[in-house]
Design a protein that fits this description.
Blueprint: H1 10-19, H2 29-32, H3 34-44, E1 50-54, E2 63-69, E3 72-78, E4 84-88, E5 103-105, E6 109-110, E7 117-118, E8 124-126, E9 145-149, E10 152-156, H4 165-175, E11 183-193, H5 197-204, H6 210-213, H7 215-220, H8 231-244, E12 251-253, E13 265-271, E14 299-305, E15 310-313, E16 318-327, E17 330-340, H9 351-376, H10 391-402
Antiparallel strand pairs: 1-10, 2-3, 2-5, 3-4, 6-7, 7-8, 9-10, 11-17, 12-13, 13-14, 14-15, 15-16, 16-17
Helix pairs in contact: 5-9
This protein binds FE2/S2 (inorganic) cluster and fe (ii) ion.
FE2/S2 (inorganic) cluster binds at residues 91, 93-96, 111, 113-114, 116.
Length: 406
C-alpha cells in the first residue's frame, strides 16, 4: 500500500508545510518522525509561552515548583524579596539537575552533584574549592523568560519570546470578573498517553469528538453539537451572564487571525444545558462563585492564552489543560483544577465532586488519543478532511506549521 507521504526528513516536512492544502489532517511523519519531534521542541515549545502554574503555589519566599517537558526542566521560585523567577534547572558546573523535588520550600538551590549553591534569584552563592580566577558572577543559573498574567505563571525558554502583551491587554477585561489572581490549585492530575503531543493538543481543540466520546460532558455542554446551541439557549446565557457580571464579548485571535506567531488568544462563553449551573455530575454548583460573579449563569468559557495553553472556566471553578511532550510518542496530559483561594475543602467544596467531570472526560480523552496514535502509526494512514467543527485544529496548524518555514 502506498501513502503520499512516506519519507520523514525535515526537508519533506518543510515542503509539505509550504504547499499544504488546508482542511486536512497532517501526514503521519508529524506524529512518528524523531526529526519532526526534535523540531517541535526546538522551534515550537522552546519558543512558546507555556502555562506552568499559579502564584498561589508559591505564596512565600523560598516556595518553588518545577515544570518539565521533554529534556527541559524549569524551576519557578519566589525569592526573599517576593519576586518570582524562572531558572533553567541545569547546573552551571557540569550540568546536573539542581532541583530534584517537584515542589517545596528552600532557602537556597543546592546542586546534588558537587554542591554548588545558588541563591533563590539564581546567583551562584557558594562553590567548592574553585581556583582564584573563578568568577561566581559569571555562573548564575540561566534564566527562562517569565510572565505573570492575573496570577497565571507563563515561562518560555527563548530570550526573545512572543510578545503577547497586546493580546493579553485585550483579554484582560474579559477574564477580570473571574478573579484569576485569587484562585488556588485544588487538584492537579496527569494522564500519560502513548501518543505524540499534537494528537492530544488537536483533540482538545475540537469538540467534534465530544458527542461520541464523552457521555458525561455531552449531557451538560452544548458545545458538543452546534445545532443544540439554540437562539433560546444563547439569549438565556447572554442575559444570565450579564446579570452575573460577565461581558458578552467573544475574542478569537487564533491561527491566521493571531496578531503574531505564538500570540493566539481566545475567549468565548457558551451555554450549558438547562438544569446545569456548572460542569458537574448533578448540575449543581461544586464551589463558591469565582471572583466578582454574582450568580451561576449556566455557562462555560473557553480561554486560550498562546497556542499551548487552554482553560475552561465555569462560574465556580477553572480547569487548566496542558499537553506536555515527554518523548516522540509519550505525552503527559496535565489537568489542573482551580477554585477561589478562600474556599475550604470539605466546607465549600468536595474534591470528588469538583474533579469528577474532567477526570472522567480526561480518561476518555486518553483512550481516544491512544487509539488515534495507533492508527496513525499504520502504513495505511492517509490524512482525511477536517470537519467544520475542527476549525481550532486548522488554526493550530497555521501557527505550528509556520515554525517550519522560518
Ligand atoms: S554539576 Fe552541579 S555542582 Fe557539579
Ligand atoms: Fe475530549
Amino acid at each position: 500500500m502506498q501513502t503520499s507521504f512516506e519519507r520523514d526528513t525535515l526537508a519533506d516536512v518543510r515542503e509539505f508545510a509550504r504547499s499544504r492544502k488546508p482542511g486536512y489532517a497532517l501526514p503521519r511523519s508529524f506524529y512518528t518522525s524523531p526529526a519532526v519531534f526534535d523540531h517541535d521542541i526546538k522551534s515550537f515549545w522552546n519558543n512558546s509561552w507555556i502555562w506552568v502554574g499559579h502564584v498561589s503555589q508559591i505564596p512565600e519566599p523560598g516556595n518553588f515548583f518545577r515544570f518539565d517537558y521533554c529534556a527541559e526542566s524549569i524551576i519557578v521560585v519566589r525569592d526573599r524579596q517576593g519576586t518570582v523567577h524562572a531558572h533553567v534547572n541545569v547546573c552551571r558546573h557540569r550540568g546536573s539537575r539542581v532541583c530534584l523535588e517537584q515542589s517545596g520550600k528552600t532557602s537556597v538551590l543546592s546542586c546534588p552533584y558537587h554542591a554548588w549553591t545558588y541563591d533563590l534569584d539564581g546567583r551562584l552563592r557558594t562553590d567548592r574549592a574553585m581556583n582564584e580566577q573563578f568568577s561566581r558572577a559569571d555562573y548564575s543559573l540561566f534564566a527562562a523568560s517569565l510572565r505573570i498574567f492575573q496570577g497565571l505563571i507563563f515561562v518560555c525558554l527563548s530570550d526573545n519570546p512572543p510578545d503577547f502583551s497586546p493580546a493579553l491587554a485585550r483579554l484582560e477585561p474579559l477574564t477580570t470578573p473571574f478573579g484569576f489572581e485569587n484562585l488556588k490549585v485544588a487538584h492537579a492530575a496527569s494522564y500519560p498517553v502513548p501518543a505524540n503531543w499534537k494528537l492530544a493538543q488537536e483533540n482538545y481543540l475540537e469538540c467534534y469528538h465530544c458527542a461520541p466520546a464523552h457521555k458525561e460532558y455531552s449531557r451538560s455542554h452544548s458545545l458538543k453539537d452546534p445545532a443544540s446551541m439554540t437562539e433560546e439557549l444563547l439569549s438565556a446565557l447572554a442575559k444570565n451572564s450579564c446579570r452575573a457580571g460577565l461581558p458578552g464579548t467573544a475574542l478569537n485571535e487564533t491561527g491566521q487571525d493571531a496578531e503574531n506567531t505564538g500570540c493566539d488568544i481566545y475567549y468565548r462563553r457558551y451555554p450549558l444545558y438547562p438544569g446545569y449551573s456548572t460542569g458537574s455530575r448533578s448540575g449543581d454548583p461544586v464551589a463558591p462563585q469565582l471572583g466578582e460573579l454574582k450568580q451561576y449563569d449556566g455557562g462555560a468559557t473557553d480561554v486560550m492564552i498562546g497556542p499551548l495553553n487552554s482553560f475552561l472556566v465555569y462560574a465556580d471553578y477553572a480547569v487548566g489543560f496542558r499537553f506536555v511532550p515527554m518523548t516522540l510518542q509519550e505525552t503527559d496530559i496535565q489537568i489542573v483544577w482551580m477554585v477561589r483561594d478562600d474556599a475550604v475543602e470539605g466546607r465549600d467544596y468536595s474534591l470528588e465532586d469538583l474533579v469528577w467531570l474532567w477526570d472522567v472526560t480526561s480518561r476518555d480523552d486518553e483512550r481516544i488519543i491512544r487509539f488515534n496514535q495507533q492508527g496513525v502509526n499504520s502504513i495505511a494512514f492517509k490524512p482525511g478532511p477536517l470537519s467544520s467543527m475542527e476549525w481550532g485544529i486548522e488554526a493550530f496548524y497555521h501557527g505550528y506549521l509556520s515554525r517550519f518555514l522560518e
